[in-house]
Amino acid sequence: MRRQDFYFDLPQALIAQHPVAERSASRLLVMQGKTLSDASFVDVLDYMTPDDCLIFNNTRVIPARLHGQKATGGQVEVLVERILSDTDVWAHIRASRAPKAGSRLTLEGRIPVTVTGREGALFKLVFAPEETDHATALEVIEAFGHMPLPPYIEREDDQADQERYQTVYASEPGAVAAPTAGLHFDEPLMAKLNDRGVATGFVTLHVGAGTFKPVQVDNIAEHTMHSEVIDVPDETVALIRRTREKGGRVIAVGTTCIRALESAAAASDDGELSAFQGETDIFITPGYHFRVIDGLITNFHLPESTLIMLVSALGGYDNTMRAYRHAVNSEYRFFSYGDAMLVLPDRRP
Question: Burial, 131: exposed, middle or buried (Cβ in 10 Å; 0-12, 13-18, 19+)?
Fold first, then answer.
């Protein structure tokens, strides 16, 4: 397939710049096979049964954006991509001229950092956390960093984003972008799921900045995905097996959960889901054979993005593109702080 097959016209006014007042107050577009239904997000309960399970990504967004200066006085913006140790990180650096190995940066007016190397688009930075009265680089970032709002949110982060650009169940720090499908769930809705008997499980995929990387080739088979760290624990695998035994469905909350679970299954010798820790660069496009997932809760994604390609693989290309045209015509809110979509395909793994 070609990149332009996934293009749709999106008015700028539909790109959500702020979250709605309450997490679960978003709208929900339900796509069951070829059938589309408009609903409210709390109606997601009506589509769940006690035999089903929901799988969430429990990654926690770190305030990974830091501003500062080079020793020469030039301005820099640092976006931490991955924590490597108590002192070392990989990061993107935006500057008029890329800093060389050995360069010193001062971030947020007080954080000394040394550039020690570079691999591709990423720079290796070494923090000196003790000089800021903190024990680790992560603690320094948590204390002084800014929430890394996506590039299509055209404003600076504010205090509200510290809470709202984070899921209520986030527990494992390491992401530089939120698993945004989970932003619609609040504590009352989680409690209602529990009361209905819907089981919940967790995986971890630390979302990297590469999630916003555009597809730049015409033939999507030639696109190379970025790599992200995942953890699919034993207890989640056991939950999914119990769900299968009962005849229930496995519903992923977010494309990151699909990528984690399908990667874990693909890594096993027999193609069955097993616990897995490591990295994934899986790229799911139409024609992919799903091993684990029966359905998906997701936000609305960028035109020509790898994420709309993944949704099309699960829901069907024609169905998905028709749903997106309906969402635009019905003025659904798009992207990270936007509305949601429930995808329930006719087929099952």
Answer: exposed
Count Cβ atoms below 10 Å from residue 278 Cβ, excluding itself.
12
Task: Identify the DSSP state of 266.
Answer: H
Q: Is the pTM of this model over 0.85?
A: yes
Cβ atoms 172, 60 nearer than 8 A: yes
C-alpha–C-alpha distance, residues 342 and 125, integer Å = 40
Q: Residues with Cβ < 8 Å from 231, sequence gap 6 or more?
A: 172, 203, 204, 205, 260, 276, 277
Give CA–CA dist 167/200, Å, rounded. Answer: 15
pLDDT in tens, 215-226: 999 999 999 998
pLDDT tens profile 95-110:
999 999 999 999 999 9
Q: Within its chain, how far is the Cα of 326 from the centroid?
A: 24
Compute the distance between CA of residue 106 and CA of residue 129 in angstroms, rounded to an integer.
12
Between CA 117 and CA 42 the distance in angstroms is 48
Distance CA 93, CA 79 (A): 6
Amino acid at 250: V
Alpha helices in the chain (DSSP H): 137-144, 161-164, 187-196, 234-246, 255-267, 306-315, 317-329
* Distance of alpha carbon 20 from alpha carbon 132, whole angstroms: 36
